[in-house]
Task: structure prediction
Amino acid sequence: MTESDFEPKIVGFLCNWCSYRAADLAGTARMKYEPNVRIIRVMCSGRVDPTFVLKALSLGADGVMLAGCHPGECHYIEQNYKTIRRFKMLKHTLRALGIEEERVRLQWASAGEGALLASAINEMVDQVRKLGPLHWSGNWMDDEGAQEAIQALPSEHAEAMEVPA
Amino acid sequence: MTEKVGVYICHCGTNIAGPVDVAEVARWAKENLKGVALARDYRFMCSSLGQEIIQEDIKNEGLTRVVVAACSPHLHEKTFRSACSKMGLNPYLTQMASIREQVSWVTEDRAAATEKAKMMVAGAVRRVQLQVELQPTEVPVNPNTLVVGGGIAGIQASLELADAGYHVFMVEREPSIGGHMAQFDKTFPTLDCAACILTPKMSDVGLHENIELLSYAEVESVSGYVGSFDVRVRKKARYIIEDACTGCGICIEKCPKKVVDEVFEVGLGYRKAVYRPFPQAVPKFPVIDKETCIYFERGTCKACEKFCPTEAIDFEQTDSYVDLNVGNIIMATGYDLFDCTKIPQYGYGRLANVFTNLEFERLCNAAGPTEGRIVLRDGVTEPKSIGIIHCVGSRDKNYHPYCSAVCCMSALKFGHLAMEKTGAEVYSFYIDMRPLHKNYEEFYDRLLQEGMHFIRGRVAEVTDAARLPGEEGKIIIQAEDTLIGKQRRIPVDMVVLLGALQPRFDAKETGLKFGVSAGLDGWFTERHPKLDPVATMTDGVFIAGTCQGPKDIPDSVTQGAAAAARVQGMIAKGTVLIEPIVASIEEARCSGCRICNNLCPFNAIEYLEDKEVSYINAALCKGCGTCVAACPAQAISGAHFTNDQIFAEMEGLLYDVIGSNGATAKSPQPVLEPA
Result:
């Protein structure tokens, strides 16, 4: 595959009340947008464990979009504020892992903002397309020593904890 | 156990079948996806014929799971769930893939659309195999209802319920019910007098055997869930013993203290320190205002107590609390008026003869401070010209972007009343005229005939700085008339600002108390803007009237009645099913770290001191899953949205990347052995 015909695979986590309905609206209004984002419905963006994002990337997704109600508009009152906090943490982790910022995106879209969601999807697909494939799953699984390294962690940890006499 | 999944691809006429090769998706699913026993495509899956196909297959092929790839689950999930449950398949063993809203309607390229549809079907097929049977819990519904707010919406809701034979508790913050409507003079477009149509309803509420009115009271706390809410109401001290008071009004007559009435008369009139907001108040008991009462200030006076024939005055009274249990709650908490001083260029508060809409209502009102005479701030001079400015604080990005819905019609009403009472020239400065309801356009026509002047343009400034001859001593309204493309300066004697309707100052707090969310504007959010306009996300809590958004009296009444009808439905049924999509904690895995405890805005999670674990009250849980995501030990699982189910869907959606086995099979979770 050459860079030019690379089509990114993006997993989207959309909350049931705002952004999934925004996707419904974008559909009803026949707004055309890139087909690269595959959507998983969750009840609230607060349900998205940061490890879901890592899991998606490790499975082979090139990017992950989280979408929820605007802050202050959450159908569960304030749970999207927790999403904000977690997202910040997640970004920090991703940076440490060397993953480009643009590969994950937190997008607010209310039930009336189909157009906003569609343009956010287009924008993100465009950005990730430019970045190229992540190949994280490939790198991860090709690493022969990974299992052993993980297995060795506890003993290394114990060693490090020992106080020299 | 291996599941037998039936996959059904809907054509939706040509809505899906046009942009997506549905036969190919079905063929592909059958050949490539594990667990798929059969895959069919059909013209309209939601039709009774389509549903019968699924039902036949459940019977004949022994399907244990069903995937329908069609429209959004928000549209037809219920349809397919109930079709399956009629055949004995638990409704939570079905899954939809939204290949219409998310694929066929939004994708231009047919190949890409077909590919995306396949992946979404793969996600649903993977996920559905891990879904488990769930049973909604059934709880009884207490037939008593709480109505919060005694404006026209709350009154309508209460009367509907009470007339149907159900008991209602109505809580009103002010000393009397009636709300904003009680302050109005006439109502558009019929020009009925507001009091004439409202006060009979108010007294009905006061006298109704099924309504218990708690006025001058506020809801302190709400707990529980649909069918059984525990509500604590604080009755503010009135300093009047309601059981003894006959409402004769002698105390009001004898009270020596006169103060400006900032609430009901919006600063235009006076009331006593012991007062009833208006003569027809319901209930009839007055209130002693502690802030202004001479006795509370200086320790002497008690004139009211001396003259009260029934010894109903009690200066020692304190706030009291009433605990209620109700099955449903209707919130009709209303609106506040925009503070017009926030737009200094319109001069309110600086130029004496700039009035707000509510002030003008009081001026027009025969029972108001001027007995219905429309006069300037000096109290005697009749204006010869009046300028009415629309959209003050509404349709304005600096304040509120929304339309306040009632101002155009108020302007027409004011124009009519002003011309009728004073013969003044009336100018209306509007952005767009929006007479949207029945007979409203006709009323607009009538005002055009009557000679009201309409100038299309947003007002730039209201000033007393005269520049041209004829402007001295007048207020000048400067605006661009966009219909003739010219700047105009109109000198008038009086300006009426049609201030926006805005959410109550404490709407956020109130929303939190009742578990009702609000939009960015601050109005309470309905469950669905079109199909479920009076229900909220919290089962058993309904909203009616302007707390949901700006609306006029007919709409408020409609919503009040609609909310009452919804509540009657709940009561008539007697029990309510609570969605089984809730979180639960596996005690054995819970370390009692309590990280989840503070995450729940519904207080569903409690810590069991004796067991040292956290516990989720399923009846309070709304199923958002935030705690599930937070648990470091994965001790919490969210029904119907478990980690496994979400991962399975993810693997299916990425089928083209990872193939049919899924990456998880290749890389098992590393197990950490203790060192």
In short: The radius of gyration of chain A is 19 Å. The longest strand of chain A covers residues 10-15. Strands of chain A lie at 10-15, 37-42, 63-68, 104-108. The helical segments of chain A are 19-28, 50-59, 79-96, 114-131, 136-142, 146-161.
